[in-house]
Amino acid sequence: MRSSITTGIGVLLMALVLEIVLQCLPVSSGLRLEHSSAAMPLSRYLPGQAYVYSHGWALSNARRGATNAQGFANSADFKPDAAVLVLGDSFVESLMLDYEDTLQGQLDRMVGGRVYAAASSGNGLADTLEMLRYYGPRLHPRNVVMLIDSGNLNNLLLPAPRSHNQFVAGPDGVRMVHVDYAESRLKRWMARSALVRYTYYNLKLPDWLSSLRHSGGAAGVGGAAPAARDQVLDYYFAQLRAAQDVVGTQLIFVVDGDRNMLYEPRKGKPTWHGDDRQAFIAQARKNGHVVVDMQPVFAAHWRQRAERLDFLPMDGHWNKVAHGLAAQQVLPVLQPSRQP
Fold first, then answer.
1. Selection from 169, 159, 155, 116 nearest residue 138 by Cα
2. What is the rounded distance in angstroms from the CA atom of residue 315 to the CA atom of residue 310?
């Protein structure tokens, strides 16, 4: 009994020491989300929220920032008559980059301002569709740029996390459902602990435990069956067209390449499932949208410079090189602003 008490006290003291040390280090803070519902089905953070980003156990690539007035990272506050609105997920959010190194930051410098970004980690096609519906009539952007990565297609028919939207396909067609989010007091209280945040965000303990539970499953990248995928994409592009007609904007899709296969064509594991990438590009072009395919751009850059385009193997998000290449490709296809 005495030994157990001594051990327990030792564990508590060690946790206290770790808490004190980690409070002084750039542990990822995480970002608190706004409440969401079917009436406001957007995944956004609290506005004006300061945050800290770092990666892995060593707290590498530490960054500090703050969300804008609308609750998005790496974007100026939104104003009407935008030149460009960039929509997407964590690839656009880019907490691991400084603003000037992001796609939206570089486009803002190139076009002389009025470039904004609305993005949240975990966003899928259903989420960016809702963002276009909401912000399009409010900002009247001349151009809307949507960054599409493999996760958008791989997770097309999977249940959405809280605060996000999902497609539900059935015999009666496709519909969209929002998964409501309300912050719990327990989560807010626990997030004050640097040790808890280090375990959750930097060590990603929940992801590790999840991978152990699914370690016996099938290998490879999952995805929707082609027939279900095409049904959802037909619905998605029809809804995009309706939202686009309301605003009168140009839609530009920036489609990520398969960078794993670029670096190691013989041993690399594809990030895109089957022909998802080709099918999406074909659908977008068929519907009259501009497509910026980054695969040949990335391939040419890799051949010429052998310079990586992301933070792999630790983090698959684009680095500033990839964002810069994308901005260079988007700039020539932008429609000029309505205002001088």
1. 116
2. 7
